[in-house]
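Workshop exercise sheet. Pairs work together: one partner reads the sequence aloud, the other fills in the structure field after running the prediction. Swap roles for the next sheet.
Pair: D.N. / O.F.
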Amino acid sequence: MALLEIRDLSVRYGEIEALHGVSLAVEAGQVVTLLGSNGAGKSTTLRAISGLARPARGDILFDGASISGRKPEEIVRRGIAHVPEGRRVFPGLTVKENIMLGGSNRRASATELSREADAMFDLFPDIRPFSSKLGWTLSGGQLQMVAVARGLMARPRLLLLDEPSLGLAPVIVQAVFRIIAEIRRRGTTVLLVEQNARMGLSVADHGYVLETGRLVLGGKPDELWNNEAIRAAYLGGLTAAAG
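Structure field:
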């Protein structure tokens, strides 16, 4: 049984149907990448999973139980953390305080959360020197690492990552994807929305391609990347696109 299963999912924003009958599965321990051009429905898929967008039709199963239409805080408690596009770090809090906020859904003492936040710097050594700095002083790449660390503080079984490389310099992108690979190695399942097709597929066990709200392709990363027709039709522009 898949850890996450989406069945015939449709999501509407007013009169606009952003997703049309999408079905996909994510196995425990995998990194699965969602690819597609701007407006394809990738971010909407993550928002529906995390409860930020209400499905118009279909179902979302997590560990065999329906979470469709559940409140975001309940979905977090069940073991799903969502790191949205744009980082959204609190500028007036320190790096460590921002990271600790990720554990606010858990029944843990401040001392325990502080200890776990310190341990996060082993996974994110680039931001360790900034632990006491305010969020607004960090670079884009550092903010992205803080946002991912904050998501991991919820101890999720499934981590939803939306465009983690967007706007980052290539050397920082490499660092972010090394962290994603390490997160997988530590046993957390990852559903990744990524505008950089090559990087997204490089860490994935499986990939899906969305086009105008519909799932049009799915397969192993090498199958998607090495098929020239598929790459030209669906992946060629993804290094510059977002959605």
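Discussion prompt: The longest helix spans residues 170-185. What would you look at next?
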